[in-house]
Amino acid sequence: MVNTVNIQTVKKVNPRAEAMKKAWYKFSRNPLSVLGLVVVVGVIFVAVFATVLAPHPEDAGLSIHMTETFQAPGLAHLAGTDEYGRDVFSRILIGLRYSLAIGLLVLAISVPFGVLMGLLAGYYKGRLIEAIIMRFTELFMSIPPLILAMVICTMFSSKYIFAAIGIAVAWWPWYTRITYNLVTSLSNELYIVYTQLSGVKMMKIIIQEMLPNIMSPILTKMSLDMGSIIITASSMSFVGLGVQPPTPSLGEMISSGIKYLPNIWWLTIMPALMVVLVVLGFNLLGDGLSDVLSVEEK
């Protein structure tokens, strides 16, 4: 008689992969979060390939078509034409690229700097460096971001690069504050206290233990801030700061079209709708990430 032994293959479970699956499952169950993701991905795709997707990319410059001025939205021009006969839809797509570029540049500057300042303030809690960092943080937070960004942009240059730098200077304190609060809160957790008592240096604890745990709220805030940054950049373009004509920007297009309201409504309404769509997409995505990541932390 032959004994048979059943050998079952045990699959190794990757905790990170399982956590990602659970997070995606919860995220996908919220239709508004999925809508936000679709909008954001679509907006990024359109911005990257704006010159390819735009039916009249040449209208992003000084093109003049006097026989096609002020045409209402239709098949030939989906969003109508402006006072120079330029295709508004093409200018919106290309203007969207600059809006997203400014948003990404602002986050690329403000997030690393703000998080670093928050970590340093948390690391040197109770010392002079903490007081200095947090007093400067509170000072910058007391100034409206739009006003501070406009002042900096006016002092140096009205180009969109300096507009992004100006907004970033106004934005970093919020990341410093949230990072400092998170580090201070985590410092009281038992596993952090035990790690400190075991002789591990505080800086190593911050990098290895605290930093991974604070990334979830930071990522959520980044998504929510993207919409606010685009609104701020559009507001600056509205008053002539940032992207300069004839290069299109959503804020400048809204501003230049106001004088033609209400008859030539599409010059203002069409770019304004794009701003609303982008902000709504990032806000919905940020809310979805907040719900998922808050559950994961629990």
Automatic annotation (TrEMBL):
Gene3D superfamilies recorded: MetI-like
Protein name: Peptide/nickel transport system permease protein
Domain (ABC transmembrane type-1): residue spans on this chain: 96-286
SUPFAM superfamilies, sorted: MetI-like
Compartments, record wording: Cell membrane
Membrane topology: Multi-pass membrane protein
Keywords: Cell membrane, Membrane, Transmembrane, Transmembrane helix, Transport
Main location, first listed in the record: membrane
Biological processes per GO annotation: transmembrane transport
Transmembrane segments: 32-54, 98-124, 145-172, 178-197, 264-285
Family according to the record: Belongs to the binding-protein-dependent transport system permease family.
Top-level taxon: Bacteria
A single cellular component GO annotation: plasma membrane
